[in-house]
Amino acid sequence: MRQEFFSEHWNDPNGNPEGGVSTGKGFCISWQRGPLGVGEERREPNGAFVEDIIHAAIERIEFYQNSQFNCQENQDALYHLRRAAERLDDRTRSRESRQVEGTHKQ
Predict the structure, then answer these.
(1) CB 21 within 8 A of CB 32
(2) What are the extents of the domains in the chain?
């Protein structure tokens, strides 16, 4: 059974994603607020990225897989989480090649 959790996602005045929070029993995520910028204006992240959370879930399920709880369902979940992480990495590479990574430009 899935536990209840709370999420609130914010937009800047232009309607662009700008952070938020997701909390539940045992976790609290503060999402990255605003773009990181490019070049000399690039800033350090101030929150989590979806990619970070996916990788944390991958590590946890790998931990299960190296225990008595090893099972096909975990292996299937790992496949899909890894695929999701790969697609998000593809998106980042595409944005970098178009020189819009770190901005709200499409």
Answers:
(1) no
(2) 1-37, 49-106
